[in-house]
Every structure is written in structure tokens, then in C-alpha cells.
């Protein structure tokens, strides 16, 4: 069930891109954003925008506490840095 919700959220992100705003998306830090899906079991997808209409999906996980784990942010940031170096 959660996978279907995440897929629907990703399709919405693909269609609207940077026009998609709160409460669907939020800024984590400079260049890193989150897609919020669900109310009870909350899924978070970290993503970043690249040149053109490219969107890089960096990490998706189920958030179990009110605060986003720093390790998840660090992993997404690391992946984004690797991708930027290759672009």
C-alpha cells in the first residue's frame, strides 16, 4: 500500500516539478528536498533538481519519529554530491 502512495507522489513530483510545494515537498538543506507521502506511516523521499527537468531520487525511507534522522540526510547529501561531480 505504501509503495503505491510513494509512486503516486513521485508521479506528482514528475508532473509538477519545482511547482510542487508544501505540504507535499519541503527543503531539507541547500539543493536537497523531501517529498512527503502518507499520514500515519510517513514515507520520505529525498531528491534534488538538476539541469533541465531532471529530478534525482536520492533516498526513500519510512519515517518513524517526528525528527528526520541525520544519517538519512547525510546519505542523501553524499549521493547528491557524487551525482553533481559526474554531471
UniProtKB/TrEMBL annotation:
It comes from the Bacteria. InterPro entries: HigB-like. It comes from Alkalicoccobacillus porphyridii. This is Type II toxin-antitoxin system RelE/ParE family toxin.
